[in-house]
Amino acid sequence: MGVRAWAPRRYAGEVSELARMRRDLAADLDGYNADTVDSVLLCGSELFTNAVRYTASGRGGEVIRTLWAIGDRVCVGFTDDGDTGGRVPQIPRARTAEEWAFAEGGRGLLLIEATAAVWGHRPVCECCDLGRHTWAAFTLPATA
Question: I want to staple 130 with a disulfide (CB 3.0 to 4.6 A). Which of 4, 29, 94, 125 is the partner?
């Protein structure tokens, strides 16, 4: 099983860094299947934006992006600066159809769940809110 890990990349916790993160991610994945790269970019954008929007990363902190490939999967992850007030990434399921029709947020994780082979999160430290690493993995198409 082949394993590849790219050096982590650091970004200021600002939405304006999203374009640079996407450029870096696309460059790092150069040579991979175009559809897979598009999926990683889409989901990576959501994960980065969530880190900036819902954690201390977006209040003067940073976001660290990781990228690795293992066997037939490529995985992208983002570590935030914590201070979430105990909230963890989860898909909002207790909404009525009418509430979903008018909801302005909460769709990003649905998109990730529908696009990635698997996704998840874990705290940086079990004892306190020092940050969370949220990741998504994508299955690479078989090569001939």
Answer: 125
Cα–Cα dist 84/134, whole Å: 13
Instruction: Check pLDDT > 60 for residue 144.
Output: no
**Exposed e or buried b for every residue in 96-109, given b needs 16+ CB within 10 A?**
eeeeeeeeeeeebb
Beta bridge partners, 119, equal 136
Average pLDDT over residues 79-95: 73
CB 73 within 8 A of CB 127: no
Amino acid 73 reads R
Judge whether 48 and 19 are in contact, CB under 8 Å.
Answer: no
- Interior/surface letters 111-137, b for 16+ CB within 10 angstroms, e for the rest: ebeebbeebebeeeeeeebebbbbbbb
Place of tokens 């570590």: 79
CA distances from 22 to 1, 40, 57, 72, 129 (A): 27, 9, 18, 22, 27
